[in-house]
Hints:
By secondary structure, the protein is α+β, with helices and mostly antiparallel strands. Helices cover about 25% and strands about 20% of the residues. The protein contains 14 helices and 20 strands. The strands form 4 sheets. Strands 1-9-10-11-2-12-20-13 form an 8-stranded mixed sheet. The radius of gyration is 23 Å and the shape is globular.
Amino acid sequence: MNRKTLVLPAVVGLLAPVLVACGSTESGGGDAMVVGTTDRITVGEDSPAPLDPAFAYDTGSWNVLRQTLQTLMHAPRGGGAPVPDAAQSCDFTDNASQSYRCKLRSGLKFSDGSAVTAEDVKFSIERIIGINDRNGAAALLSNVDTIEVKSEREIVFHLKTPDATFPFKLSTPAAAIVSKKKYDAAKLRDGLQVDGSGPYTMKTQAEKGDVSKVVFSRNKHYTGDIDLRNDKVELRVFPDSGAMRRALEKGEIDVATRELSAAHIKEMLDNQSKDVKLTELPGLSIQYLAFNTDHPSVKDKAVRQAMATLIDRGQIAGQVYNATAEPLYSLIPASVGAHKNAFYNKYGDPSITKARSTLRDAGISTPVEVTIHYASDRYNAKEYEVIRDQLNRSGLFKATAKGTDKWSAFRAAGQRGDYAVYGLGWVPDFPDPDNYIAPFLEKDNFLGSPYVSAEARKLIPQSRRQADRTAAAETFARLQQIVAEDVPVLPLWQGKQYVASRKGINGVERLLNGSSDLQLWELDNSGN
């Protein structure tokens, strides 16, 4: 997702590209730097509004929205707690972290020159919550009780319960500011149009609904915290890592970003070129198996526990992903505070003996038949074949691995509960342990999972009361134990991220932050 990763197959056709202009049509000066990506965006039956913040909840779409829509807060250069962007200032007005006041910058304008006011902010947040699209990120804002507009530039969010993570949530595209004139309060804005007040305006090129190119141009009306180092950047979409790498080597693109395959990264590390540089950046993405805990084949948690006992994460990371992944034994990555090796502490090294005992004690007949689904246009089929073989070698499972050709269909089927077991990835909305736990365990969770832990749903709000996030470590330790015990999801590995760039491109080390947020404004080609 990858939760925030929408990757769809390339469509080869005879139709002429369709150009969609979004926001101002003015362009910055100079030649555009070209950045390659394999994050695909499409308009279709399962994805009618991929660039509407009320629908979008994938890395590809969010990385377009981050360039074009503005939020009150944003992630600062170098990471850390969010800082004001559209806002001049934002602060909790109480000690309980339950009332949050923001004052907007003076002179804020949308890309068409119209003013951005506190009423627009209120409209945008209430729109996300009201539409509450099952594909979207409305759950991030579900704790908002009321929104009070104090003046044209001042707004107060009253929360249902204390939430020290609320400033982080206001920095995500779920809280993006849109115009009441161009977005309907009650329904999605279908297609690829985007109108905002962010650092860039954009033009989109698409074929049969599949985006092939997005050209970002400096928004002359932008007022915020971001300092643009360029006037124009072209984001070019490739069907796979191989095509993107070849374009980089030919000089057709300047930068190759999300996502180079593990094999291509290894080749580039082993055979370094004087014209192309590979840069490793902090990564916080995880990969996991999700379970429909109501499905007959995995409803008994003993089956899920046996799978957790058998799966060899080291083999997956080593054989499939080489140096780009590390085994993961918790939903919270090892590089994030509050991490505990909860799954290893409970299950230890892979063991057929322990798994057999778990199933026998629960009265489960073997072999257990199970199908592991994955999106073949997004995820590595070899990973799921390795997992299948690990389970089958035990003699306790009769597992198959089945790919779905189209991500949008795969995602919709997972949310409907069609799959007993399926593979997904997660890139955090913000770098706090809460964002690795709450989206999976809260009511109306990202997966649409039927799993309920009454204890977890009490602990999550409790953890958010802690303004000092290190003080919530004990609560998160218990939450990780609950996940390891009940196995509603099974973490597999933690990923690294790499960016390849041609000589003369500066700012590459800041192009992606730990949450895989694309920061195109950091690039410049002054080194040429």
